[in-house]
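DM from R.C. (forwarded with permission)

"hey, sorry to bug you on a friday — could you get me a structure for this? deadline for the figure draft is monday and I only need the backbone to look sensible"
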Amino acid sequence: MEYSALIRELYALRDEKFAEFQEKIVNPRAQKIVGVRTPVLRRLVKKYRAAWREFLTFPDEYYEVAFLKLNAAALLPFEALLPCLDECVNAIENWALCDTFKPACIAKHREEFVPYIKKYLAGGEFSQRFALVTLLSFYMEEKYLPLIFGGLQESDTAPYYTHMGAAWLLAEVLVKFYDRGVAFLRENRLDKRTHNKAIQKARESFRLTKGEKDALLSLKRK
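My reply, with the result:
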């Protein structure tokens, strides 16, 4: 697989209206968007999954190439993923790439992956969001709540997408482990913006009762 051939294939699959839509919602900073719909990209991932090593050598000039790179790597066994994980995380430069990069192998290696979560929590905006979304995707169990709460406290939530990732994670804790989440909120360990956004997102859930939502509203910080 040559990079130029891949770009030609992507442009042959381009949907111009979708490209305009993606530009607005993804908010790419340094990458170009071709405009290939996600289901089509996922089919390409399956088609070229054996070419993941080649994908890793390709530049991240295009959103779609980075998507293929990350999602091909996400299919790897745990031992094969780890050596290329830093490169994958470094390729994440927007929320859409971050939130679709969910290596399935983590599910069977959660304890082994904890040091990597802590490592990426010390990184930049999308490195931190990757760590937070990984906690959300693979660690939402009561025994991992100390890890989740620790990750929330360690995050620098000043950057917008880290802030939103942290709020999303805490909102899910509030939905699934309401009492533990409320106890964490009462400790006021997060900045006011993230604290309040987590409450807002939790109150939008259909999985909480009106009474629980009202109680959460009383915990908003002014």
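R.C.: lifesaver. The chain has a mean pLDDT of 95.
me: no worries. The longest helix spans residues 160-176.
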